[in-house]
Amino acid sequence: MANKIPTRIYLSEDEMPKHWYNLRADMKEKPELLLHPGTLKPVTSADMEAIFCKEPVKQELDDTTRLIPIPEGIQDFYRAYRPAPLIRAYYLEKDLQTPAEIYYKFEGVNTSGSHKLNSAGPQAYYAKEDGLTSLTTETGAGQWGTAMAMACAFYGLKLTVYMVKISSEQKPYRKALIEAYGANLIPSPSNTTQTGRKILETDPNTTGSLGCAISEAIETAVNTEKCRYVLGSVLNHVLLHQTIIGLEAKVALDKYGIKPDIIIGCAGGGSNLGGLISPFMGEKLAGKLNARFIAVEPASCPSFTRGRYAYDFGDTAKTTPLIRMQTLGSGFIPSANHAGGLRYHGMNSTLSKLYHDGHLEARAETQTEVFDAAVRFMKVEGILPAPESSHAIKVAIDEALECKRTGEKKVILFGLSGVGNFDMTAYMAYNNKTMSDYIPTDEDLQKGFSSIPDIPQNG
Amino acid sequence: MANKIPTRIYLSEDEMPKHWYNLRADMKEKPELLLHPGTLKPVTSADMEAIFCKEPVKQELDDTTRLIPIPEGIQDFYRAYRPAPLIRAYYLEKDLQTPAEIYYKFEGVNTSGSHKLNSAGPQAYYAKEDGLTSLTTETGAGQWGTAMAMACAFYGLKLTVYMVKISSEQKPYRKALIEAYGANLIPSPSNTTQTGRKILETDPNTTGSLGCAISEAIETAVNTEKCRYVLGSVLNHVLLHQTIIGLEAKVALDKYGIKPDIIIGCAGGGSNLGGLISPFMGEKLAGKLNARFIAVEPASCPSFTRGRYAYDFGDTAKTTPLIRMQTLGSGFIPSANHAGGLRYHGMNSTLSKLYHDGHLEARAETQTEVFDAAVRFMKVEGILPAPESSHAIKVAIDEALECKRTGEKKVILFGLSGVGNFDMTAYMAYNNKTMSDYIPTDEDLQKGFSSIPDIPQNG
């Protein structure tokens, strides 16, 4: 017997969004502008175009255009793996015996295994439009590196990926996948850049860091003909591309006349969360939707719940523009035992502003409880969730159980941003009960805060 | 601009098949009956029910009922991850510059990563219906073990998986996934069975074999209260469950009035190939469809192209009923360097009969050429294919290039049975050019043939 609301709602190609939605245009209180770290004045296109592609820079600095057309060449890329399904969690609802209706937007149905492809495609497309022949980027856990390798193979661009050295050693399969797509993978630090050589001179046995990999990727991009650098999260143009998630979800829900009461997403740099909530938040700000929005972060890296709202650097080497955001300080280092991604010290500026102004709630969750939720979910829903995405599952289950207690039939929507196929070491630690739930002490946080620059706006 | 025929065709829940299709009912020349190895008489339900669940045994022995209803409890399971998309390979067509239209039925969009779940669900469901509390099975590469672990978690059954020892050591992530779903995983040979203990006594350092794992799983099932054994390929009831693949594909093609000219699938034990082609072969046998059917096997394990059509055992320990099939002999051992699955010595009896009678063609392909095709495919279509499935890709590309040569606009349909996320060691060997293309010599084959039993029917 087929369900009245199907288990999986797929849009037709005609129903797929033709524009991204720029939430900033509908915010009366806009996120603060990016500042040049030298002059402390707003950055210009020219500043940014030395590093990034032209159209993404334009999108980054545009906080007034509501709808930004998705070029046909990018729609073509999206059709290769989208639409992503909106899934009604019938099996989870039954397992929880909740009166709540639970829906999740599943972004793991592609080989990169996550939502990252939604911005990798556009960024490669715009590079091609700019007449570039190659790109550089960095990758930690490997999702972004895989997504960029796929996008560059699709558009016929060369790609160099600086992969954090310890990660490239611990995740040989991610490395193999990135290489199979034809990308040049370099464990970082490397002797291909000044930055890398300098670090290796001081500490030949270093295992690398994301901050160092970013610096190497930028240095290579700047010193290579017809080459630029691409980034997979944090920035507003990345969040813009990710609004395809929320837009598709909204079309699917609207088809069945469903209005969400609670919208939940996991948050690292914020692109997945922001992409999911943008169109719904736009309705809320316009007084058309009465919903709660919850960001879920790991207790080990709590930039929302324990961070500061301050101007800070995006990287540890302090080379990026200054971003006003929720931050733990670019010097903050999350516990080495932390299993998933979501290890970034800061948060997208738009989401930070929404949180600061009280439109967005946030919760921090510990690893073991997150994996408890993941395993409960995977046994009934059949999907192996990424550790990152499982943070959203944890809070969705908590909210559904709260509905069970109160008897309320709320509609819960959460983002399942990816699958855990390449994260089995984390599941092994969970199976073996060797997972750590370390939460940073106030002292740990203080150390991170001390790296936040001391500039007038932060006073 | 949306495509006239969408890139991905998804059925609605109402359109999903409510019956499996039993091809044998429409074959004038039926596959030979299973024989009891002691009496050489056809096996009875009673013989088989000591090991297997009741309904699967009934299905195994039924070669006259055309349509077998899919119980609502199994349709409910199918809705958790189906329908699987039928994909128009627009990007591959463009890359090949072929006038051919290429479609593939993609069965990798679930956590087990393959079509195996289509039979794991039904087998677990019937076990529950029989009042059983546990099941046993074996797994080599791990796809079937994962699928059964998922199905048993869904229906609330205990599961013991005997995993070939070397595989459990070389594929710790598969092991972790099976365990995360709550199954009890035992590296085989083990000291939990007589068979295992005997082998360990003789050779304590053995790395195990699928034949031994099967024997241990059967022994445990027979000696445990309310427990039976389940198998993931070769048998006709497994092929029956897999017809969901071909039935969905046919509904999707019929919606757009498309008739395939060539249908291609990879073949190990035959369940994926048989599931895909069954409804189309039924039409061909009835004179309603003029299509070619091609089975693709690895050159390292060529049961169709170089095997014999003879009665043989299904396992190396020679405990199963005798099956008339294309076989290399149960003693045949494929090269250790062979990367993917498709290592089985025999072939489903229905497919063997169709091949023997000239309704089905077969081709054998070498590893490196198969991976060349896989990488070409993944760069444009964005999906990382399983090594097994890539055999079908290889021949689909060959046929599309033949169309380019002749200018014919044929419709090619192939089965993409799974993804390669847990097969990255094989891709690493390909990237590093350390992959072997060993093809068995006539002497190798002769050794295998000598294990085929010497019984009157084989004379």
List keywords for this structure.
459 residues, globular, 40% helix, homodimer, 17 helices, Rossmann fold, 4-stranded parallel β-sheet, alpha/beta, 15 strands, 7-stranded mixed β-sheet
Question: Mind explaining what this structure looks like?
Answer:
The structure is a homodimer of 459-residue chains. Chain A has 459 residues and is α/β, with parallel strands linked by helices. The first copy, chain A, has a domain of 268 residues: Rossmann fold. Helices cover 40% and strands 16% of the residues of chain A. Chain A is built from 17 helices and 15 strands. Chain A has a seven-stranded mixed β-sheet, with helices on both faces. In chain A, strands 8-7-6-9 form a four-stranded parallel β-sheet, sandwiched between helices. In chain A, strands 2-3 form a two-stranded antiparallel sheet. In chain A, helix 6 links the parallel strand 6 and strand 7. Chain A is globular, with a radius of gyration of 21 Å. Chain A starts with 7 loop residues before the first strand and ends in a 10-residue tail after the last helix. The interface between A and B is large, with 49 and 49 residues.
Mean pLDDT of chain A: 95
Shape field of chain A: globular
**Range of strand content of chain A:** 15-25%
The count of strands of chain A amounts to: 15
- Supply the number of helical segments of chain A: 17
Largest sheet of chain A: 7 strands, mixed
Straight-line distance between termini of chain A: 62 Å
The CATH C-level name of the domain at 8-16 and 70-113 and 235-449 in chain A is: Alpha Beta
Percentage of helical residues of chain A?
40-55%
CATH architecture of the domain at 8-16 and 70-113 and 235-449 in chain A: 3-Layer(aba) Sandwich
* Topology-level CATH name of the domain at 8-16 and 70-113 and 235-449 in chain A: Rossmann fold
